[in-house]
Each structure stands twice: as structure tokens, then as C-alpha cells.
Amino acid sequence: MESVVVGIGIGTMNHEYKATSTITIKGILSLLMESVGENNNNKDDNESKRVISLGMGDPTLSTFFPNTKVTEEAVADSLHSGKFHGYAPTAGLLQARNAIAKYLSNDLPYELSSDDVFITCGCTQAIDVSVALLARPGANILLPRPGFPIYELSAAFRQVEVRHYDLLPERGWEVDLDSIEALADQNTVALVIINPGNPCGNVYTYHHLEKIAKTAKRLGTIVIADEVYGHLAFGDNPFVPMGVFGSIVPVLTLGSLSKRWIVPGWRLGWFVTSDPSGTFRKPKVVERIKKYFDLLGGPATFIQAAVPRIITQTEEVFFRKTIDNLRHTADICCQEIEDIPCISSPCKPQGSMAMMVELNLSLLEDISDDIDFCFKLAKEESVIILPGTAVGLKDWIRITFAADPSALREALGLCLLLKMVAFFLPHYTTKED
Hints:
The chain is an alpha/beta fold. About 35% of the residues lie in helices and about 20% in strands. It folds into two domains: about 5-65 and about 315-425, Aspartate Aminotransferase, domain 1; about 70-315, Type I PLP-dependent aspartate aminotransferase-like (Major domain) (Aspartate Aminotransferase, domain 2, 3-Layer(aba) Sandwich).
């Protein structure tokens, strides 16, 4: 894959970073924060502005999204028991694997077992495991555009060719199935689906997921289902796990506690073979998976030991509150965006914690692209938003709405972002004028 060097000129600043195969969300957000820091260093304390970050999908940064006491108590009790200071089995503690298998089976037409579940350090490690296990000479993998760049980065390290299929904004970010048909060949090892969607906030219907499964079967490939935002659906479409269609096509289900339980820093994820037909239970396949996990270190043993209690004792009211809060903050985003002339949203988010909005560069003076927009926004207004280039869609931006409502309004409302628009577009007149 080609690495593109992009120069970003911001006043006297000149940042360079490598895009495509080497880009990371954390990397570009770090550059944006440096831009804010350099700008504030040139001001006195009275002039410095507080930083509002809508760039990172970390709900713990907001008091509006607390976790539940059950999670904290379960981990504390596990640690204080003194029973879990040693190494866990490389596949993960049996009680944790059993609990995850039962939790996921609740939404499936078949039962998973502990043998189907492997514990990982967050969903990020599960992503890397899935790509590493499928890598072979000449292999290619189909990734959504826009998507999550860790897949591309992992594929680059494994020398797996990446082929991007498009998500269609005019159809609620559905998969362009025709492009998948055109891209796949005999060397295609997997089709990656992210549902609920990051970065788009989409939630796929049962019917659309079924069509994806049948397309993958016809092409002779498996599906990697990234469900790190599983169950975080608040729109018209309920969350349907891809594993429901495991009898049609083998599915690798990736997930974690991170988002639904609001504990991303605990790094407790899973890699699951959702495959009632038994493709992944062939002796050589099982041996390959187990041997690869022998190379890895999983999450802390005492956190694994807390998983059964976390899953079984978290009350439904906690999940409902999280969903209600995400619906509320997504509504705020959509309402505020309507009043910003240079930004438009093709559809309202249905789930996850982020959405993609398109920039109208013709309404902006002295803005060359989405990267330039985000760096100038960071420098002038101390607001951090992720440029769409970081997730594969140039001249769009990703807004994370898992934030305090007041911060969202300040960042997106007339009091801040329209002030920024006026900075770039001196002749624009607001509705109030």
C-alpha cells in the first residue's frame, strides 16, 4: 500500500504525517491537541480557551456517561480476593469465556460454548488477531470506507492487501454490495462489517445483514463482524448480531466491554467464532487459533475474573439510561448541525457514538480540505474534531457525540462553531441577523 505524506500548514506551523496505511485516529488527535497547546502557549491564562474534544470515542471523558457500580465492585472484589494475581490461560479464564458465550448466545438461534470464545486486550487486539490468523501470501481483505483505520494498519503489518468497498450515505450508510462483488476474488480472506457503525452511526437491518451474509457465502469468504458498539442502538433499527447468520457464512465476532459498559480503559475484549456449521472447529483451524493466542497476553486476570458478575448483575436500567443519553446527545448534534451552513449530515445516527458529516468547502474561505478545517478549528477555537481523511473519507468530519450536552452545544452551536464559520466566511449572515 502507498503511504502519502500530507503537509498541513497552520499559520507558522507545518505538520506532516503519513496517511493511508500508517494513519491512526490517536495519532492525528495527538497532532490536533499539539496545535491547541502551541496556540494556548502563546496566550495568557485569561485568553486561553478550554479544550472541547469531540474526536475520541471515549465516553468516560464525560460525566454524562457514568459506568455502573456493579462493574467497579466486581473488579474490586476480584482483586481483593487474592485469587487472581497469576497468569490466566492464554485463551482467557474459563468462567469469563463461559459468561461471554452465554451473553452472546442470548441473541443467537444457537448456543455458543466457551471453546468459541477467546479473551483479548480490547477489541483492538481482536482486530489484529483476526487479520493475523487470515494472513497468507497474496491475501486481500475487504474493508468499509469510511471505516476504522486499525484494520488497515494491521493489514499493512501483515502484508495483506486492503480493498475498500463503499458505504452509501444516501442509503443510511448501507454496504454497496455491488462493489463487494466487483472487489472480491479467490484471494479474498474476509469481509469486514462494523455494526453499529463507527464512524457513521448506522445500524443495519436484519434484511441488509442477511444480504451481506449471502453475498459473502457466494464469494466464498468469511465475515469479520466488529460489534464493539453492540446493543448501542437508539434509532428505528434494533441491533442484530451478524452471528445470527452464522449458518449461512462463518462469522468472527469481535467485541468488548468497553462501550456498552463504559469501561474502555479496562481493555477487556473478545474474539468469537460464531459458526454453528463448524468451519472454525476443524482441528487445524482450532490448533492455529490456540497457538496464536499462546503468543499473546490477555487482559489482567482479576478483570477477567470479574466478567461473569459484570455481565449477569448489570441492571437493564443502566443500559437504557446509556441509550437514552446517546439518543439525546445525537439529537443535539443533528439540531445544531442544521444551523451550520458549511456542514451537512446525510442521515441521522441510529447507534454507536459517532456520526459523519460532510463539509461544503465552497462556503469556507482559506480552507483546503477536511484536515485543514480541523487543524484551524483546533487552533482558533480549541475544538477537536476528527478529519474524515483519518477514516477514509476526504472532506468529511467525524463527530463523537458521547459527550456532555453542554460541551456539544458549545462546540457546535452558534456560541462557538458559527463564530468559527464567521471567522472563515466573513460575509456569511446568520439567521438571527
